[in-house]
Amino acid sequence: AGTGSGQTPPAHWVTQDVRVAPQIQDGELAIRVETAHARALEVRAEGSHLVVRGVLRTAPEGTARLRLRMRESGTILTAPLTLGVPREGRVPFTAHVDTAALTDIRVNHERLRPTQAERSIARWDMSVEIVDASGDEPTSTRRALIMDDREGFSGAQFAQKDPGRTVYARRSPGGYLQFCDQPVQPLVDHVSVHPDGSVELTGSYPAQGTHPLELVLRQTWSGHEYTFPAKAKDGRFEARFVPAPTHRYAGETPLRAGFWWPSVQKPDGSRTAVQLAPPVHGDLPLEVDAHGKRVELQARQYDQLALMAHSELRPEERSRHRQTRLRTETYPAARHEPLREAVLYDVFGGRMYGDSPRAIHEEMVRRGLPVDHLWVVKDGQCEVPATAKAVRVHSPEYYEAMARSRYIVGNTHFPRWLERREGQQIVQTWHGTPLKRIGFDFDNDHFASTQYLQDLDRERHQWTMLLSPNKFSTPIMRSAFRFGGDVDGELLEAGYPRNDVLLAPDRAKRADKVRRALGLPEGKKIVLYAPTWREDKQRHRGGFLLDLRVDLAKARAGLGDDHVLLVRPHAHIVEPVPGAGDGFVWDVASYPDIMDLLLIADVLVTDYSSVMFDFAVTGRPMLFFTYDLEHYRDRLRGFYFDFEQRAPGPLVHTSDELIAALKDIDATSAPYAEAYDAFRAEFCDLDDGGAAARVVDRMLAHRGATTA
After folding, report:
1. Cα–Cα distance measured from residue 17 to residue 14, given in angstroms and rounded to the nearest whole number
2. Which of 387, 380, 327 is nearest to 357 (CA)?
3. What is the mean pLDDT of the segment spanning 531-546?
């Protein structure tokens, strides 16, 4: 087991001096029987010293000392033992350790001095043992000092002369006394779960006075984090929070599946881990239901608190064996059942409610068509309206819906095992006008893998309909997807249904609703920065880096009085936006539908993203932050046309140029009025607010032809 007491099983005392210690060795359980020749019973502070009190099983030969050794440097510190009067065959002892000497171990060794940035995380561990100095050091008898917590002491923090650091006397994973020179941080001694789904943490915090803090939940893989209020007062720490996202852009969505690590952030921005005192280990794991997601509080790495947000799939659904059976048995069997009058919508694999499938759904609902509406949802990260029913990705009902829904409408690639059956329609809306090369037109190794092209070659035969956003895109999509000739499907020039909202009669009302939902200040110009992703900026554990080249400090200084900057990274980006939440920078990556953001933006800043073609419908100014134009165009993706010559706005190459252009956007964009008009004429020729109606009409026509 990798968590809690399963990771470091607690020892059990069978006699006064003998303990049985279970251990995990190479994945197997082993039992160690150990005689305690030296036991630590208490560590307390007395003035400038830490007093260690304990008992020895036998009296030492000669002078005995307490010996501390720092693992990282090998530095040794000793303190004499004062022996008491033997009682019941045991010899009590005390030792006084100078806290200043403990600090000096770190300070006097150059490589152990943490930099300012490291101060909040640097921790140095010291082993503690009893040495019988009957002769030279090599011949000394050493006794491991086992922490005996049967009298109630299981660890405590003690202040150092350095106000930002503390000495933590703790029980090590093996059950021995250990001193740790570490930052001031919470030592949680009580964890509770309340009926409302909130988690309460209380513990010690070795700093007097009142300290406003924030509890931060961070997912290491994605970089996403959420903050909650916390405080420390007169040496005690407390925080109460619901382990769920703190934003409400997407409704009551739960934490993404995976590990979340709590830390405490101080007003200066530094962070420390949340440690667990040994008595809490036996209370974990604890479970809480947070917005429908099962979240488990665990002890990880022995004494670090971690939150595990479980998958929405039940254990019996998500195993590899079960998924194989669902794919190879359940799905094929369901294909022999009658088709269900239902529409299954899939936007980026269940990540959101939006894009063209949303517009098609709303058009079908407006018409009152007699069909059930099913929406694919991944990991609970998408809240669907009352007009649709959520279907969990890879659940049994998901495979059944794929097999039996009359219509499947999606904006990206479908599962490779999906096979269109007679009478079923699969509508591929896609999600952008192609400036960048796509599909079989790729000629680099970053995206066009052999497996990708093999999957695409199979998938194209499953589409009943492929949407083209404009006449320019039609021949490109036919070629890039090889959608013609041997393909039994229709390439429909209908425009993108998602763009209808930009021309809808109620767009001003909807825009006002979006501004209120985001909490944007009134009277400020809204700048939306929506860059695409870079295939060569992949993170080591998946996803892609946010290569943010905007100098946010300068932008805030130059634009903050009358602008707000909304940053919308591409869906493949898995890092948060730095500096968001300061009133100027807004991280809107989690907002469900980018079309709402286009609706409220006064200015769009992008690079090579196809969002430029959608925003052009509004006629509002655009800037293109193309700091890596040559690399992206010539080596990474390639373009279908001369972007520099036809761009409907200025191309800027540095952050300073971008900020200067935004300061006077009217003057900056004025020279591009003619180019903008030409751009709209070519790429927005089908945008008239009626694309969704045309697509639904065609879907119904196909349905009529099938049943005729």
Report:
1. 8
2. 387
3. 78
- Separation of alpha carbons 591 and 580, rounded Å: 14
Residue 232: count other Cβ atoms within 10 Å of its Cβ: 25
Q: To the nearest whole number, what is the mean pLDDT of the chain?
A: 90
Is residue 58 left, alpha or beta, with left meaning phi > 0 and alpha meaning psi from -120 to 50? beta
Q: How many domains does the chain have?
A: 5
pLDDT over threshold 90, residue 10: no
Dihedral in degrees, nearest 10, Cα atoms 610, 612, 615, 620: 180
- Phi, psi angle pair for 283, to nearest 5°: -90, -10
| Alpha carbons 357 and 540: distance in angstroms, whole number | 32
What percentage of the chain exceeds 70 in pLDDT? 94
Spatial separation of the C-alpha atoms in residues 466 and 410, rounded to whole Å: 10
Is the same domain home to 65 and 26?
no
- In terms of residues, how long is the chain? 708
Digit-coded pLDDT (tens) for 573-625 = 877 888 888 899 999 988 989 999 999 999 999 999 999 999 999 999 999 99
Stated as kind and residue range, the H or E segment containing 81 is strand 76-83
Of 437, 469, 499, which one is at a domain's C-terminal end? Answer: 499
Residues 472 and 484 in one domain: yes
Q: Are 4 and 284 in contact (CB under 8 A)?
A: yes
Beta bridge partners of 147: 40
Flag the least confident range among 33-37, 392-396, 579-583: 579-583
Radius of gyration of the chain from Cα atoms? 32
Q: Evaluate whether residue 698 is within a structural domain.
A: no
Instruction: Give the model's pLDDT for residue 541.
Output: 65
How do beta strands 563-567 and 525-529 pair?
parallel
Q: Which of 176, 210, 231 is the last residue of a domain?
A: 176
Same-domain pairing of 560 and 664: yes
The phi-psi region of residue 689 (left if phi > 0; otherwise alpha if psi is between -120 and 50; otherwise beta) is left
For residue 672, pLDDT beyond 60:
yes
Strands 199-204, 236-241: pairing kind: antiparallel
Name the nearest CA neighbour of 11 among 20, 23, 1, 24.
20
**Listed ranges 268-272, 481-485, 641-645; the one with the highest mean pLDDT:** 641-645
Specify the residue for token string 């011949």: 139
Structure tokens at 173: 């994973």
Query: Is 59:91 a contact under the CB 8 Å cutoff?
Result: yes
H-type alpha helices, 521-590: 552-559
Contacts of 242 (CB under 8 A, 6+ apart): 196, 197, 198, 199, 290, 291
Boundaries of domain holding 18: 1-35
